[in-house]
Amino acid sequence: MCCNSYGLIPISSPPPPSISPSSLHPRIYFPNYPSNFQVLGTKFGSLKAKSKLNDVVSYAEIDNRSFYDLLGISETGTLLEIKQAYKQLARKYHPDVSPPDRVEEYTQRFIRVQEAYETLSDPRMRDMYDKDMAKGLHFAFSARRRYQSDESMEDKGEWRNRWQSQLSDLKRRSMHKDSSNSMSWGARMRRQRNEASS
Amino acid sequence: MAEQAYTVASDSETTGEEKTSPAFPEIAIGIDIGTSQCSVAVWNGSQVELLRNTRNRKLMRSYVTFKDEVPAGGVSDELAHEHDMLSGAAIFNMKRLIGRVDTDPVVHASKNLPFLVQTLDIGVRPFIAALVNNMWRSTTPEEVLAIFLVELRAMAEVKLRRPVRNVVLTIPVSFSRFQLTRIERACAMAGLHVLRLMPEPTAVALLYAQQQQQSAQENMGSGSEKIALIFNMGAGYCDVAITATAGGVSQIKALAGSTVGGEDLLQNLMRHLLPNMKDLFSHHGIEEIKKMGMLRVATQDAIHKLSSEMAVPVDVDLGNGTKISKFLERAEFEEVNKEVFQKCETLIKRCLCDAKLEAEDVHDVIIVGGCSYIPKVRNIVMSICKREELYSGMNPLEAAVRGAALEGAVASGISDPFGSLDLLTIQATPLSIGIQADGSNFVPIIHQNTTTPVRKEQNFTTVHDNQAEALIFVYEGDEKTVEDNHLLGYFKITGIPPVPKGVPEINVCMDIDASNVLRVFAGVIIPGAKCPPPFMEVRMPTVDDGHAWSAQTLHKTYGSTLDLVTVKKKGQH
């Protein structure tokens, strides 16, 4: 319940090993997504360009935007600005007020905005996120999960923990790529099964 | 209104057929079904209006009388209540009883009501009955509620001169999702379609959001964020909510609720006035019911008077030499109900803590519900929130239904030219939802006070080598062990390949959508497997009556053979 214990990472902690496709290969196994895996390596270079995109963005592109971009605020934005941006976007994307034919899509967007808000409105989580972003490791969607799991992080093996969770995040992210057509979890699993059995 | 008999339109779960949207959307009405009183409100095009019954009353007693062939509720017939209560024919407090099994302490506490509540203590539906012509006529809380809702609907249709189908209902924070399905079923039986079930204090929060937005517009103010604590205590339940409001958006930060209310105050005081009450009334004969009813009416009256007076005389003659003649002081009443008031304190403190706020962070403290008139309750709220004054912009008995009517208009897609409906509630989950794992532990997947809509997942693994099946038990609540939480349902995932324990990765994903529908997905992920086994996608809750019983039987039959454990993080040794 208490959210104060996750910020235990000392600044001098060993940096995570640099991520390149070759170093990832033996450690993560993507059962059914060889194509996504390829995409992963190229994404880093194009992050900046992607984040410039504004309106007509597909889910895949939204995923690559930082939390700041999601909320439409600068990286120096104040808590007040974060709160205001969140409420404004909630007014737009919350399924209660979204156009009836776009509820599904807007719900997804709302969940991402919520995640961005929850991370950035918490000073410690925001600090961690900023540090990761400086390293070029910002994955907007599902990143919060990592920060939350860090709550139970122990001092000793923490950098390894963090590394592991980053790996799993990469994996999750690549999994998520598959849902770029707004597929439900169920649909994804179905497809995964079909692909595997074919 | 006599021909408006109790008609069962559909006994199936809620949203059977989807209505094609008409050119002019039907504005959903707001209904507040209180344990003791009910009210109906609707957006009339420019503001929220409470509907009045034929007796010109806005608040109607929540009860149903089984006298003749056709049961009658308290919507039209207000005066009959106290008389019917003495004859055993009136059933009330259905909101306290709905969706509860006969092992529930709340059901046991209801045995002092002047009708029949009998339990076998095995985890099935209690036997509830009204005395009609000296014979017990069995009923259920759902049926009683449905009869009452049919009357409310008829009243609203007469007033609004249009058919009424869509409703927004307020519910206590502590209601489990199983109880919500019972409410939905009662509505379906009354031909009503539930658009939203809104925790009562969040309905109040929406009304507050509208008031704040209006005053911000009038003062050309910045409309900066305001934090409000809402304390709602009625006859059956006590709820607390903390909301952060700005620009018409009410963001629920934390919710806390408990089954404690005016009914407990009443029963404690009745026991205090008549210590051997339990023995006197145990037979539930016509005489006992009459005595119970008389004591109840006298005690209720005393509590009401003690809100304005320091002491009241209580005089009841229960016959056979049992006579109560006493001068009851307010301090005495407060002492007798010490535990109830302590519970209220705990709820407020917990809610503040869950919202990560201090009392000083709160701008407005709002207190609503029937118990808000009790001086002790007001003092508790004011002292914890450290203030001299409470928010005064709302009628404590109408706030929830007004909020529900606002939500009804917003959720029906109505807009207002003056921006009075530019409102939004961002809800949070009142209780954690998770599964049974690591023995009989409750492992939450969606935590309490998580903003909805939401989707969360967690991985589990098997406890036995070659374990081919696993049982996913879905529970709701905030207790450590599953027995203390509400069972929502269970399903089996099969076809786990024969591998050593701890190898299969079983992914359990929970999803709550905008309509508050909970779906649970579970599937096996085996790295490198050519053909992953099938996965399951189940809408919850699935349980019907007698669920506590079936959980025990399942445990007896299968033991731990179908158990799961949480996956330990690899970095931790």
From TrEMBL, chain A:
Residues 66-133 form the J domain. One of its GO terms (cellular component) is chloroplast. Residues 170-179 have a biased composition (Basic and acidic residues). Pfam families: DnaJ. Signal peptide: none annotated. InterPro entries: DnaJ_C/III_chloroplastic (IPR053232), DnaJ_domain (IPR001623), DnaJ_domain_CS (IPR018253), J_dom_sf (IPR036869). Residues 170-198 are annotated as: Disordered. SUPFAM superfamilies: Chaperone J-domain (SSF46565). This is Chaperone protein dnaJ 20, chloroplastic-like. It comes from Nicotiana sylvestris. The lineage of its organism: Eukaryota, Viridiplantae, Streptophyta, Embryophyta, Tracheophyta. The gene is LOC104235537.
TrEMBL record, chain B:
Keywords: ATP-binding, Glycoprotein, Nucleotide-binding, Stress response. Pfam families: HSP70 (PF00012). InterPro entries: ATPase_NBD (IPR043129), HSP70_peptide-bd_sf (IPR029047), Hsp_70_fam (IPR013126). Signal peptide: none annotated. Residues 1-20 are annotated as: Disordered. GO terms for molecular function: ATP binding; ATP-dependent protein folding chaperone. Probably plays a role in facilitating the assembly of multimeric protein complexes inside the ER. Belongs to the heat shock protein 70 family. This is Heat shock 70 kDa protein 8.
